[in-house]
Amino acid sequence: MSGTLQRIVRLIGDKKLRVSAHALQKLVNDGILIEPLIDGISGAVLVEDYPDYFKGPAVLVLQLDENGMPIHLVWGLPAAAQEPAVLVTAYRPDPSRWTDHFSRRIVK
């Protein structure tokens, strides 16, 4: 597990999190419930790590919804602060762009 993901898991466990307006809209549009994802963050699978992202460290993680369907979430940490963990976006990954486990991009 990356250091960034460890920090995010810890912050979410401490209820120090925020959902961006963009992420909230994506969740609503895709019919994704946020509570099971927050409760299951410790089981998230790291897909990509962006420790040096200019807006602050971020990670792309894979989780499954309550029906076992894959969801990608991007969580970030503010560059100038230690908290909160911010859900930047969430979406159902396109199977044509990812491996069958949704953990690696298909390079064309």
Q: Your description of this structure?
A:
With 108 residues, the protein is an alpha+beta fold. It has one domain. The chain is 25% helix and 28% strand. It has helices at residues 3-13, 21-30, 34-39, and strands spanning 17-19, 45-50, 58-64, 70-76, 85-91. It has a five-stranded mixed sheet with strand order 1-5-4-3-2. A hairpin with a 7-residue loop joins strand 2 and strand 3 (58-64). The protein is globular and about 35 Å long. The mean pLDDT is 94. It comes from Rhizobium wuzhouense. This is DUF4258 domain-containing protein.
Summarize the structure.
The chain has 108 residues and is of the alpha+beta class. It is built from three helices and five strands; from the N terminus they run H-E-H-H-E-E-E-E. It has helices spanning 3-13, 21-30, 34-39, and strands at residues 17-19, 45-50, 58-64, 70-76, 85-91.
Salient structural properties:
single chain; 108 residues; alpha+beta; five-stranded mixed β-sheet; 3 helices; 25% helix; globular; DUF4258; DUF4258 domain-containing protein
**Beta-strand content estimate:** 25-35%
What does the radius of gyration come to? 13 Å
Report helical residue fraction: 25-40%
Number of strands: 5
pLDDT averaged residue by residue:
94
Poorly predicted runs are none
Question: How would you describe the oligomerization state of the chains in this entry?
Answer: single chain
Number of continuous helical runs: 3
Lateral strand order in the biggest sheet: 1-5-4-3-2
Task: Write the element-wise H/E pattern from the N-terminal end onward.
Answer: HEHHEEEE
Number of structural domains: 1
Overall shape: it is: globular
State the end-to-end distance.
Answer: 28 Å
Give a short account of the largest sheet. 5 strands, mixed
Assign the structural class, choosing from mainly alpha, mainly beta, alpha/beta, alpha+beta, or little secondary structure: alpha+beta
Protein name: DUF4258 domain-containing protein
